[in-house]
Every structure is written in structure tokens, then in C-alpha cells.
Protein 1
Amino acid sequence: MTATEAARERRTGVGDVLLDVRDLRTHFEVMDGTVKAVDGVSFSLRQGGRLALVGESGCGKSVTALSIMRLIEVPPGKFAGGEILFEGRNLLKLNDREIRKVRGGEIAMIFQEPMTSLNPVMTVGDQISEAVLLHQPVNRKGAQEVALQSLVDVGVPDPKRRLKQYPFELSGGMRQRIMIAMALSCNPKLIIADEPTTALDVTIQRQILELIKNVQERTGTALLLITHDLGVVAETVDEVAVMYAGRVVETGTVEEVLLSPRHPYTRGLLESIPSQGKKGQRLSAIKGVVPNPFRMPKGCKFEPRCPYAWQAGADEEPPLFDLGPDRMSRCWLYDPRYADHLAEYEGRAPKKSAEVAS
Amino acid sequence: MTDGAAAAGPAAPTAPAAGPRPGSADERNGEALVEVRDLKTYYPIKAGILRRTVGQVRAVDGVDFEVRRGEVFGLVGESGCGKTTLGRTIVRLEKATSGQVLLDGGDVLSFDGRDLKKMRRRMQVIFQDPVGSLNPRMPISDIIGEGLLAQADKQNGWGERKVRDKRVSDYLEVVGLRRDYTRRYPHEFSGGQRQRIGIARALALSPEFIFADEPVSALDVSIQSQILNLLIDLREQFDLTFLFVAHNLSVVQYISDRVGVMYLGKLVEMADVAELYAHPRHPYTIALLSAIPDPDPRVKSRRLVLTGDVPSPANPPSGCRFHTRCWLRRQLNNPENCETEDPPFRELASGHRVACHWAESVVDAAVADVVPTADIEVPTELPTPQDVGAPVVTEIETPSVTDVVEPAEEAAGTAGEARPEEPQGPTQGRV
Ligand SMILES: Nc1ncnc2c1ncn2[C@@H]1O[C@H](COP(=O)(O)OP(=O)(O)OP(=O)(O)O)[C@@H](O)[C@H]1O
Ligand SMILES: Nc1ncnc2c1ncn2[C@@H]1O[C@H](COP(=O)(O)OP(=O)(O)O)[C@@H](O)[C@H]1O
Ligand code: SF4
Ligand SMILES: [Mg+2]
Ligand SMILES: [Mg+2]
């Protein structure tokens, strides 16, 4: 076992795979054609593990999360391929009754804008108890006790009073705490948090991040965190899957991906972040914009923006190359035929790479 | 920007052959261009069917600072603290309640007629929301041309459609867009492109001062860096002065020369950017800096977690407005003046102003512990925490492990297990 493997084992506990997403494809039929919102997403998460899905707006993070929860409306949505194995069961094959038991029970989700997922005309207490009643063998009184306890668990001050309040009476940070409390109330095996702090101010974001880390560690629940902020990734999880244009393009541990990215897109993202070290210099931006979903490039979807691109397999999309345990990259650089290009990629100091702007 | 597109625009002033042009902006760089004196902007709170005023939101509540010619002055603070209102009041898009704004010594708030029109040309705004700030029913030529038309006179000839359209195309090129985009509508553009259009609209009037209100906040990081690069280029090319608002502290650090931190309608700290990020002194600034998530997984800082929410600006706390969330006050055992006296915005060191009664009790070694950006040589002999008032990480109110609802069996075993401190990743580090 290599050092990295050992580290991963320790970090992620027992090592049994909890969630295994394999080449997921979720498409939408719309007027102008098919939007292949998710078109090749693969990653796996172990019991008690913490993984982030990271990528820019529109790359398919939320659609991936909603697919796992089976919250995609079909039609216009369609599961066009792949599987989502949760403890070995393919969630895409479950019937409505079965998936309802999983959703909110074994897998809970926290959304970016808690207002959209909280019922505005129900008190906080009633909402949590309702969820508990649905998934746990308790009576109404027991459910209320669980609700109170879960507010205590997430550090909501004055929890008894909060139970009687309506969502609109609460601040953004407080609503997010309530969402987390609700997610925890059924002891899920997996929590999916879709941009849980993006709408919050930095000091409130800090409170919520600490809370998420804290409850994750206390309960041993696995965490799938969706974010576009590499800072949040570095602090909150152990493993990352980077997404671009509906695909996972790189996976690995946080240290592997953020310190030595194996995909030019990941490297580009990291170099785009303004920081003290870059003061006075131009930032190295990734040129251009994400491809139009109706006019996807044929081969690698990042090719038009890639500073390392050459004429590799021009029309063929690179597969996810296996670079070690849970370490993958969807880039032709890792095809043994192109070893010299890889050498150039590795030799190019980040500061000088991707020097082209717009 | 692409291959010297900007230089191609005839509107772009050509760089002087040698040295600053006589009397040009370059020569006067560093002098105050915009001075703000005890500025207040209150919004009335109306209630009842008679819409009677029942109170006031003190959005900006006594702000003093200056923006120097040629600099980027960065303004940070959490949402609702008054950044937008401050900027809009300075450029007269919002009515000041009291105080003064001087542009090159001229009293902006009392301008009218020709003076006002001239000021409107000299001071421009770039808005945060690249979608909402462009009228969806107007083609780009009109969106950018509108301001030109309003400023048209005999000399510039902007009243003529042809002159105007040419200028619009020139400035589209300056911001890295195609000249022939003039007939298109906003919905045909991406977020980053729309922000470029907003920048072209401001630049087309050849302003000296630009209030940029969160110009990159709505953009993805790869697009954000393109726009930041553009702003940096344009600043050089057109001798611009910026009031740059953002809530992202890394962006502000990257682009600003000096930085002001706002909390509940007031500036609480202001200094040169390097000084502020390395030697912050206001407890709020320290908490903000400590809160930024760092993308380097090797950085393992302790984090200062502020409790509670920002109070309402309609009813700000007495004395020091920050006292309800202040970790320093708690650490100093709640000195009375924090609650009773509004701390003056005083000069702590040259050019470094702070509004805290107890700023002297914060020292670098203590800051370094919780702020990853602080680049500080830690003295060999560390003062004791009592001497320095070292920030204590204030825990969020979370219950102890025993309070937790029973976790699942197998998970319980892993939860307590220590995580390895050392990153066991690849050995290359940053290439
Ligand atoms: N119901 C739908 N019908 C058609 N297209 C959709 C639908 N839902 C999502 N899409 C498209 O799928 C793509 C991925 O969307 P998704 O919401 O997953 O992005 P994201 O990565 O979560 O982005 P963000 O960071 O902005 O939240 C986008 O192009 C989006 O427009
Ligand atoms: N037009 C307005 N009418 C009433 N209150 C306003 C108006 N604009 C802003 N405010 C209030 O003034 C305060 C400062 O707002 P703003 O300047 O937008 O802050 P920031 O830009 O820092 O987020 C907030 O409490 C906000 O709700
Ligand atoms: S004056 Fe008191 S309450 Fe205000 S920041 Fe300083 S120590 Fe904190
Ligand atoms: Mg999303
Ligand atoms: Mg604002």
C-alpha cells in the first residue's frame, strides 16, 4: 500500500464504498435540442468520507446532486446512461416508494438557498418533525423531541423559540443551520450539500463551514459537498472531483488535486485565483468561455480553452485515465503515446502557463 | 484582452513618448481626487397606510476617507454594511443626508446644471449585476450610446448617430469585444461579456473616477480573472482612479492600493493594502481575514469564528457598533467604553486608521495565529497571551459529543479517529 493509499484509508475510515457514481448521463430534452447537462460523471465516496464536486457555473454539479436524489423531473429530464450505486443498489432503478425512503432518510440534501427548500407557511418545528415522522419509528411527540435536539446539535440559540418560528423570520445563516438540523434529524448515511455557503457573508460562511465539519466529524456521516470555491474545498473535504462541461475531468485527494493538478482545467482554475503572491502581475486567466451546450466541441470539451492543447485525438473525447487509486484525469496527456507532451505540462511552471487572457 | 485591441481604438490616449505629459494626471497622482467628509446617507423606514416615517436605516453613518488620483481604493465589508450606498452617494445616485464629497476640491453634493453634467461624465459606475444593469430591450449601441447622448455637445459631436456609433465600437474593442456587436442585445452575451459591456459604457465617457460596485462578484473564477486583468490594463491605459467594492477579500487584496473595511455604515479600518492584510488591528478586520477559506491545503490556520449575525443598521448597537460580536472585548472582560463610546476613527500608525478603543492590545503574533495572509516574522520570544490579548478561537455554540443523537454504529468508530495532519499527497508540491 502506498503512502497516499494509506492516508486515504485512514481519512475515509472503513473504506467501504458508500456511493459509486459510474459514468452518469442526465440529459434534458428542450425546444432547441438535447442539453447533456451531465454526460460522464464518475466518482466514488466511502462511508464517512468527504468529497467535493467542484466546477464553474453550469458544469452540472446540481444536476448530479439532483440525479442522486432522483429529483430530476422526467421528462424533460432523462437518465441516458450510467448508474448510481448507493450501498450497492442502483438508485436509478428504484421505484418511487423505495426512493422516497432513501431521500431524506438515508441521503439528505442541503440547498444553496434554504428558502426554496423550506416550506414558508410551516413552522420550523413542524417541518423537522414531519421529516422525522416520515423516516423514523417515532410518534408525534417523539418527533418533536428529535426536532428540538437537532436544533441544539447545530448550535441554534434559543431552540425552543425557533421551533415555533417561520422561515421568513430567520436570517440566511440561521435558515442554513435549520436546513442542516433537518438533514441530520434522520441520521442519514450521506449528506449532499449544494453550495451551502455561497449565499452567505464570509463571517457567516465561516460559522456554517465549521458547523458542517463539526457535525460531519461527530456523526461520521459521509459528505458530498458541492462548491465552486477551491478554498472551501481545501478546508472541508478530503477528496475532490473536478467537473467541466458535464464531465468529471479529474479526481484525487485534496492535496493531490490542489497541489499538483493533473488536468489543465484544474491548473487553470487554481492559477486564476487572485492572491497576495500574484499582486502586481496579471492573473493568468483561462481564455474564452465554457462551450455552448448545443455546440460542444467534438473531442476534449476543454480543448478550445486549453493552453496545452495539441492535435491529440482531435475528434475523440479522452477517457478518464486511471492514475492511481481514485486518481483520474480526463486528458490526453495521460495517454502513454503523448509522454513528451506530459513532460512539457509538468515542466511548465504554473506562473507562466495559461498566459493568454480572453 | 486580445492583441493590443485597446491601442487600436483611436479614442485611447496614446502613451506619452517620455515621462508624464505636462499637467497630466500622472503628475498629480497621489493627490486626493475624491474626498469624503463625515458622509451620512439614511433611508427612511415607512410604515402603515399613511406611509409615515417610523425610523431610519443608517446605511452610511459618518464616513471619512479620500481616494487618491491614480489609485484603486478597495472597500470591503459584509452585505448590507453600506458599501453600495456609500459609492452611489459619492457619485450622486443617492441623496446624502449630510456631509461632504469633494471632487478635485469641488463640492459634488451642491453641483447643479453644467457642473452636475460635467461631474456625471467624470464619475462613472460599473454595476455588480451584469444582467440587471443592462436594459434587455436596448441594443448595445444604445446601451453605451445613451450616456454619450446625454453628454453630447458641439465639441464632441456625440449628438450625431454616426460619431456615437463609432465611439461605441471603439470602446467595445477596448474591452475586448468585437466592433460589430453594436446591433446585438444583452441576452446574446455571457455574464463576463455583459460585464465588459458595462465597463465599455463607463469608459466611453472618458471618466477620471470609476465606482466599481462588485464588478466581478457574479462571475466564475476563470471569467473573474479575465475581467480583473482588463480592469488593471484599463487603469494604466486611461489613468483611472477606482473605488472598488467587493466582498471577496482576495480580490480586493489583489487589485487595491489602499483598503477600507466597513461595518454597519462606518469605516472601521483603513490602511495600505500590504499593511492591512499583514497587520490588521481592528477585531472585525481580523475576523474577516481569518474567515477566508484558503485554497492551499497545507495552510492549517486556526479560525476565528464570530458568533451571531450582523445587527440591523436601522438600530445599530450603542457605543462601538461591533461590540455585540467582538471577540476582543470579551477577551478584555467587557470594558465599559465599548458599549458606551463610539470609538473615533483614529490614526494608529501613519496612514493606518482604526476605530477601536483597544486596538493597541492587538499584536502581530496574535494575529498571525488566526490569519493566513498575515506575513509576520514571529518574534523569538513570544509575549504571553495575557500581554497581547491573543485572539481566542471563539467556538460556535455546539454541544459536546455526548449530546449527539446516536450515530450509526460503524460510523461512530471512524468519527473519533484522528485525521492525519501531514498531507500525504504527491511529493512534487506546487510545480
Ligand atoms: N431542467 C432543465 N432543463 C434544461 N436544462 C437544464 C435543466 N437543469 C439544468 N440544465 C442545464 O444543465 C447544465 C448544468 O446545470 P447545473 O444546475 O447542474 O449547473 P451547476 O454546476 O450546478 O451550476 P451553478 O454553479 O451555477 O449552480 C446547465 O447548462 C443548465 O442550464
Ligand atoms: N433604496 C433603499 N431603501 C431603503 N433601504 C436601503 C436602500 N438601499 C439600501 N438600503 C439599506 O441600506 C443598508 C446598506 O445597503 P447597501 O449600501 O446596499 O449595502 P452593501 O452594498 O454593503 O451590501 C442595508 O441595510 C440596506 O437594506
Ligand atoms: S471598541 Fe471594543 S467592542 Fe469595539 S472593536 Fe474595539 S474592543 Fe471591540
Ligand atoms: Mg448549482
Ligand atoms: Mg452592494
Protein 2
Amino acid sequence: MKSFDTIVIGAGHNGMTAANLLARRGQKVLVLEASQVPGGMATSSELAPGYSIPSIAHSLNGLDDKTIAALGLAGAGLRFEPDPLPTVCLLPAADPLVLPNGYAAPIPGMAGGDQKNWQDLLGSLSFQAAILKQFIASTPPQPRERSFQLKAEGLKAALKMKRAGKSELREFLRMVLMPAADVVQEAEIDRRLAGLLSFDATLGIAVGPRSPTSILGLYYRLATQTGQPRVPVGGMAAAMNAFHQAGVAAGAVFRFGTPVRRIVVDGGKVTGVVTEGGEEIGAATVLSAISPVATFGSLVGSRVMDTGIVRDVRSIRTKGNVTKLNLALGLRPTFKGAGNGATRLVFAPSVDDVERAFNPSKYGELPEAPCFEAILSAAGDQSVPAGAAYLSVSVQNTPYDLRSGWKKGRVALMKSVMTRLEQFSPGIAKAVVAAETLAPPDIEERYHVPGGHWHHGEWQVDRLFFNRPVFGAANYRAPIEGLFICGAGTHPGGGVNGLSGLNAAREILGAVR
Amino acid sequence: MNKPYDVIVVGAGHNGLVNACYLQRSGLNVLVVEKNDWIGGAAVSRELTPGILYSNCSYVCSLFRPEIMRDLELAKHGLQIIAYEGGAVFKQDGDFLASYRNHHAHRREFARHAPRDGEAYERYARDVTRQCRFIQPLLMRTAPDPASLKPRDLGEMLFLLKKFNELTAREMADTIRFWTMSISDFLDEYFEAEVIKAYLAISGIIGTALGPMSPGTAYVLLHHYMGEVDGNVGAWGYARGGMGAITRALSSSFLASGGTILTDAQVSKVLVRNGRTTGVVLENGDEHLATTVVSNADVKRTFLKLVEEPELPGDFVRQVRNFKMRGSSGKVNIALDSLPEFPALPKGSPCIRGDMHFTDTVERMERGYDDWKAGTWSADPFLDMMIPTTIDPTMAPPGQHFMSCFVQYCPPKIRNADWTDADRDAFGQTVINQIADYSPGFKDRIIHMEVRTPRELEAEVGLTEGNIFQGELTFDQLLFNRPIPGYAQYRSPIAGLYICGSSTHPGGGVMGAPGRNAAIEIMRDLKRNASHASPAHEIL
Ligand SMILES: Cc1cc2nc3c(=O)[nH]c(=O)nc-3n(C[C@H](O)[C@H](O)[C@H](O)COP(=O)(O)OP(=O)(O)OC[C@H]3O[C@@H](n4cnc5c(N)ncnc54)[C@H](O)[C@@H]3O)c2cc1C
Ligand SMILES: Cc1cc2nc3c(=O)[nH]c(=O)nc-3n(C[C@H](O)[C@H](O)[C@H](O)COP(=O)(O)OP(=O)(O)OC[C@H]3O[C@@H](n4cnc5c(N)ncnc54)[C@H](O)[C@@H]3O)c2cc1C
């Protein structure tokens, strides 16, 4: 039997991040991945000959430069489109609102008062997000823990608040669990921006802007993003190849097409894994970088865990609600407000529109007027044929459990989004060369993520920090010796940021030291 | 010129009266001025049709603090709380879910609907009770200001931390979850049967402008579960003679200790000179002077209507404007010539003496909330319906009955326009129709009806936007955030002006805690002995 220091299950970007760091520190690391390519939910695939299109995630939300450096990703070929990614808010019967650099720059043509309210709101949100940021790039503090690190983080956060003064602290404690809708209403920002913020706060989470706590989604974006989502040159596949290559360069061994069937536990200790093919591979440490529900529910099995944690894992809400529509286009469509560079289009005209689209999803129904974001590829993008383009669309509020079934649902959803796109770019439907609809159950099947959830499991307050994924496993350690977990389902959550991989690798290195 | 008082309390709601009682008993000379020609605010019983007494607004008592009942000798002044029996949720398929006071019967009934839910109920009851015990001691204390370094705030903060610290790590993690989850998600972790979830979700939405699927509604459950009748966590009771009996007993206690109440005396302005209050002016022009004024009116009414804007810091006014008090509930009070029948219930079932409901799924409740968000009352509303006269014979002549229907959801405006009488009548009909679907011949039994939408609640009780709790119970408006961060200790930017209504910590419901806590702060400022206010009892 072959043996490694650490076996990483899953070559999603988080698994690759951890493998890279462990190998750099001299560990013998094996990464086992079920599919044939690296990247999990963050890669691209060939939708039509010559078209490599982001399958699920289409931008890197929150992969910061420190992580890129720590992993050696630049050396492995990771590059970003040089121009900032503009956001174009599509508005029915009105000109679009263009944010040339997302939240990062003033909005041209916006009147002084509106501009000021917008900047003021961003100012306080960013300040508050920065407080939470303190806790994101490290293992979450556990209740009753009195470690030095917790004290240090707490002190840093407290100092930051102290410097800012009483009213900032009070404002933070008031706002932190508010509905996004109330926050934007109080700030009296332009109604179109209110729509955008409502959308950004709730995308990937089963809440509407009027749900209490929905502002947290926005904090998370602001805390993990250096202001902006980024689009890698060569598409998501190129970015994931860079993760893979950097891992290989660090010394990790990768095996693709090798799903793990079981994590072997003997006398309360992990001893290795068994692959779907029946091969047993030994390791004293296993890091499972897949959905926690899959780890505990399928790979470990309830026999070796106590009933409390089995019940907790069962209560993780994993049903996703974002559907991907991928369009290969024969020519690059024009959208008012979009230039030649890669562009983010958002359809979320107002808070009420976002909330109305949320309502039916609670009952397993599709919204009549779905809200969505789309990435339109840059003119001259090499991942599509010359003159062509892709449009990668993430549609919100499309529930996993569609009552009328996804067979009809896929068709209906594609039709309603195409009709909407046609309003803004007449003729776009005729340019479609190939199209696919990946609803949550499709994502579940293709990417081995139960529920097909953006964050592998609901990203709401009751499942954050020391409750993520469940109490007792929130410091990346499963309650089984030698078993660690990371991935979107663990702290701090999903998005392509590599943070859980980083934090988990640190825990493993600390444990074996 | 009227003779000056030590303290003027604006409003004879139950919190105003509790406040006045404690202050009067500390030797201060207190005047209560009430705009209506009756007292009680939202804890009131009025006879609108001969012989039949309604509990016009609030209708059940569970939150009212027993410490206050004892301190103010309310039993001596006629207050009696009677526990009620059970209740029922009628299902659309003709079956029903009964609830019983007896734990074992209750559990058996749950098991009838889903075998595993009987057992789950044990776990659920244990977990929720634990949460109640954690929060209960916080009700009767002034919330600390986390931004303050004053010894008292630090001390209170330490108390909070100490309470939290008494929990095990697991309990801490669960507490955080409980405080932030939706009641629907919370119940999904325990139960299978839809009707059981619908039944238990009720306490998470009553009075809130949120649906059962909104995060934060599990906490609201506590607000309704916390009460005690004879020390029984979570039990509800009727006040004999209607909810007005509570405020009648309070006023009797107040008058007995030498206080004065003026009714039909609407305050139009709180007088302020050099940043200090000097008294109030009534609508009829009368001035009453006092160096301390306590407002029982909600925070918006107090600071946006009764105080001149230039007297207040601009930032404060902005925050008061941002205080959320969207009304979400209505009330239909009905006088009946005979006891209605519900064929779904077995003959002689005690369930008719408790709370009855027609919403058998969480989804129906949530859809009702969607209607509210869209600016109309729920087409398929949620009703909390009771017939207090099945237990309390003092409220109607023999054979006749008072039926109380609390209704959700009901918005403060109809698609941004004011309510009209026609809207109100249509709303009333929606409610009657729902009852009649389950009770043949119901409409023929009706003698009289009082339909109250947020418009009526605002006009009569003074609740801005008809919010029954004088402000929504969301995280941003609880504890040290209620009503305004930095002003959560019953004081205001104006010296001598205090607030004591449900807009303040710990919030709404006929609980009395805000009025009592405010009295303690005032006595502290006026250097009065407060030993007649006993501290919170801890339940074990
Ligand atoms: C529709 C949608 C759109 C999104 N858009 C964006 C976006 O634009 N930007 C962004 O930043 N984020 C986006 N996200 C979120 C983001 O894609 C994920 O949070 C992130 O990719 C998760 O990475 P991960 O490494 O934790 O897990 P995954 O990417 O899920 O990787 C897990 C890997 O484990 C493998 N695996 C599973 N089971 C086994 C097994 N038994 N044996 C071996 N291997 C196994 C899987 O094949 C997979 O490769 C989106 C998510 C969705 C659903
Ligand atoms: C329909 C309904 C049903 C409810 N059901 C229940 C229930 O079953 N159980 C429960 O525990 N709680 C219930 N509640 C909530 C509970 O009744 C209230 O939270 C509580 O009664 C509020 O008491 P308060 O003293 O804080 O304020 P209020 O009762 O609002 O008293 C304020 C008083 O101030 C007076 N006032 C206002 N402005 C002026 C002025 N300018 N001059 C003079 N006087 C003024 C008003 O007339 C009023 O009397 C219900 C509320 C409503 C509306």
C-alpha cells in the first residue's frame, strides 16, 4: 500500500490551495480528484468547438494578491485582464447605469447628492467589512476558546473600533444583522444602486434583500474582494490550471478521474482512503476538500461519528438556488454601456425586483422576472473563436427542488432569460451557437456537490464561524483524529478565494508539528 | 396655572401606568395624562355593544412580569390571570392538530401526526426552555451601552458576558444559531409534520413584519414563549375581565398610592427650555409643569410629534425616522349570540377554549407575508382566534360570546395609499369568510364586529403605523439598539425627558418591563430609594 503524509480529497481550488501549501512545507501530498480536470466548480469547459466557457463560477471573487503570492500562482501562469471589470446595470426602459470599476470608483454622471450617499454608504460598509475581515483569513474563534490568537484578533478588531469612535461601534452593532433593503433605504442611495447592492448581497444565499441578516452577504463580498471580481486571462480553466501547475511545482501529486469512496477510520483514527476503484491508499492525515455533507454523510459514514454531529450535519441546508446559463455566441453582442473589455452585466433594477424574484423560490417555483449577473467576454478573448463571444449567466432564486421539475424548468428559465437579454441586445438569440442550462441538481451531479450550492451549504449567520459547517468541526478538524476538512462549506465560505484551503493547511501544519 | 408635579407620564398604556406606580410609590407626585377618554393603550377592554366586553387589542397575557404584579399589589386591586386549556389548528383536509396543556397528551397528539415528532417535541421543548432561561434575566435590566466606558455599563456588560459564559461551548453555539435563524429552518431541524411546524411557527411571527422564513424569527418565538403564568414557562392565560383588567388594576393601585390620572387629555407638545423639559401642553391649551416627563408613546410619536425638531440633535432625529415600526397585524373583535361550532373538533373538545388557527402549513403563512410585502392584506390570512368567554363568564351575558381574532398580515398602507373604510370592510370580510369555511352558520351568529387595521390602531392607541410592539423586534432594534443606539437607557437628548413604552428595551407585549426599568433609571437620576422595585426573579 502506498502511503502519503496527507491525502487531499478533491482538486477544487481550495483542495489545491491546501495541497500546495502542505507540499511547500515538505509534506508528501496526494490529491485525488473525481473528475478529469482540476478546479471543481470554478473551471471552464468546451461548450462548442473552439468555445471554452466558464462552467459555473465565472470570476474570481476575492482571491487576493497575498494568496496568489503564497501559492506561486503568477509563476504558474495566472494573469488577469488588465482593465477593471465594469458593471453595467441593465434597466428596463432606461439607459443602463455603468460602474466603470465596480464599487471601487465614483460613478460618472451621477449627481453630487446621490454620489455622496453612495460613497458614504460604501465607506461605512467597507469599514464594517474590514472588522469582519480580521476573522476571515484565519481559523474562526471557537466559543470558550481563550487562545492567544483569538485574543489577538479580538484586540485588533476592538482597537480598530476604538480608533473609529463610539458612533462607528454603535452603528456596526446595529447594522451587522440588518436586511440589505433597510440599509440601502436608510442610506437613500439611488434606486438602481440599491437594486445592485440587494442583488450582490443575496446572490448564492437563500435570502431576499428584505430578509434580516442579508447585509452580511455584502460584507462578505467586501471583506474577501479587493474591491472587485476579476476575470483571468484564458478563462477560469487557465486559472485552475495555474492552481494545478503551482501545486505540482510545489511537489504535490495529483490523480484525476479517481473518486474517493471511503475514508478509512480505524480505532478512531484516520488511516487512509479507499478509491471508487477499490484501491486503498494510506495516510495519517486526510484533508477532505469537498462538501462537508459528502464528507460526513458518504465518505465517513454515521457509524464512526456520534449522533449529535450526524444530526447537525443532516441539518446543513445544502439546496442551491443559482442556475448557470452558458451561451456560446457566434458574434459579440452589443449592450448599451458595455465597451470592448470583459463586462459584468447585472439585471436587478430595484430592491423590490430582487425581493419579488426571491418570493417564489421559497416554494420551489421559478421567478417570473429572474435577476441575474452575466459576464460578457472581452472582444478578442482567446477562449472563443475570433469575433465570437460567450455570455456566462448566473440566475438567482432558481430552487433546487423545483416543484414542476427541472425538465420543464430548464426550458422555461432559458426562455425567460433570453427574452430579457433580447430586450437589451436585440438579435442576441440568433447569435447563439450552443447553450446549456446547469440547474442546481445538474451542478450537484457534475461537480459532486450535494445540493449544488454556491457555498456547499447555506451561508447564513446560524452557519458561520464556529457553526460552520457544524459546531465541533469548525476549526477544520473533524471529530476523528487525522481527518481535516476545508472547502466552501467550511469557514469562511464559498467563492474562489482559497481561504478555507489556506486556513486548513495552517491547522494541519500546526497539528503535525 | 396648574400646580406643578414632580413627574408627568404621557399616556396611560400599561407601561406608562407601571412607570407611574413605581415613581409614585417612591414618594414622587405623579400625573398621568392620557389622550383617550379610557385608559390602557393596547391593554384595554371596552364595551362597544351592550353587555359584551372586548379585549380590543391585546387578548392574552403571558409576558406580564410576576415581580411587577407583586410589587404593585395587582391581585389586591382585582387582577386575576386564568390559564387556558389548549387549542387547535384546523387542517384543510378536515383533520386538526390539538394542543393540550398536559405535556403527555400534547406529545401524543404530535405523534399522531408524525410518529417521530412526539419525541422531537421533547427535544424541542428542552432546547427552547433553555433559551428562555438564558434571556429571561435580561428583560428586567437596563441594557448596557457597549460603546460606553462608564462603570455601570461595563458592569452590565460583564453581567451579560457572565450569563453567556455560564453556557457550555455547545450551548453558546446553539444560542447564536437560535438568535439568528428563521423559525421555519429552526423547526425543520426537529419536526416532520407540516401542521406541527405551522402551529409552532406562530409564535415566531406574531406582531412582526416578517414571515416564518425570515432569519431572526426564531428569536421572536421567545418573546411569546417567555411568559410565565404561575411559573410555567411558555404558558398563556386570560386576564379575567379582559386585558383591560390589567390596566384597571394598575390604575387602581396608582390612585390608591396618591397618583392622579387625567383622561381625554392629549399632549400636543413637550415643553423644553434650554435643553431641559419643563412640562407638557395639552391639545386644549392647558399647561402642566414638571421637571421630569416620561413618554409612554412610541419613540416616533414622542420625538417627531411631541418635541420640536430644533430641540433635538439632527443625527438623533434621523435615527428616530429610521426606526422601523411597520405595522403587520390587524384585529377583528366579534360579538356572537351563541357558541360557534367547529365540526372538525370532537363533541365537547376542550380545544375550543384555547387558541384556534386555520393556517396548516408554514408556506401558507409565508405567502400571507408576501401579500403584505406587496402592500395588501393577506388573501389567506393567518388568524389567532380565541373565545375568552368560554372560560371567563364576566365578559358576556350567558350564552353570548366574545371572539377575538388577531390577523396577519395587514399593512400600514394599501399599496402606498391610505386605508379606506371600504378596504377595512373587505379586510374584515376576508377574516369572517375564513372562519365560516370551518364553522357552518358562523355569519348568522354575529351580533357586532369591530375591525381594526393599522390605521385604527394608530388613530386610537397612537401606535405609529399600527405596529403592535411600538417598533419591530429585529436585531437592529433589540437590547442596546432599542430604540436608538446610545439612547437605549430610557433617557433622551433632552434632560428630564424619558421614554418608557414598548419602543424601549425589552420591547412589546403586555410585559411591564419597559415601564419598570425606566422607573428605576428615573429614580436613580432623582436619587430616590428604589427598594420597592424587586429584582428579576430567576426561574430554575
Ligand atoms: C452557479 C454558481 C456560480 C458561481 N459563481 C461564482 C463566481 O462567479 N465567482 C466566485 O468566486 N464564486 C462563484 N461561485 C462559488 C464557487 O464556485 C465555489 O464556492 C467554489 O468553486 C468552491 O470551491 P471549493 O474548492 O471549495 O469546492 P469545489 O469547487 O466544489 O471542489 C470540490 C472538488 O472535489 C471533487 N470531489 C467531490 N467529491 C469527491 C470525491 N468523493 N472524490 C474525489 N473528488 C471529489 C469535485 O469533483 C471538485 O473538483 C459560484 C457557484 C455557483 C453554484
Ligand atoms: C391588536 C394587538 C394585539 C396584541 N396582542 C397582544 C397579546 O395578546 N399579548 C401581549 O402580550 N401583547 C399583545 N399586543 C402588544 C401589546 O398590547 C403592546 O405591546 C402593549 O400593550 C404596549 O403597551 P405600552 O404601554 O408600551 O404602549 P401603549 O399601549 O401603546 O400605550 C401608549 C399610550 O399613550 C397614549 N398616548 C399616545 N400619544 C399620546 C399623547 N400625545 N397624549 C396623551 N396620551 C398619548 C395612548 O393613547 C396609549 O394609551 C397586542 C397589540 C395589539 C395592537
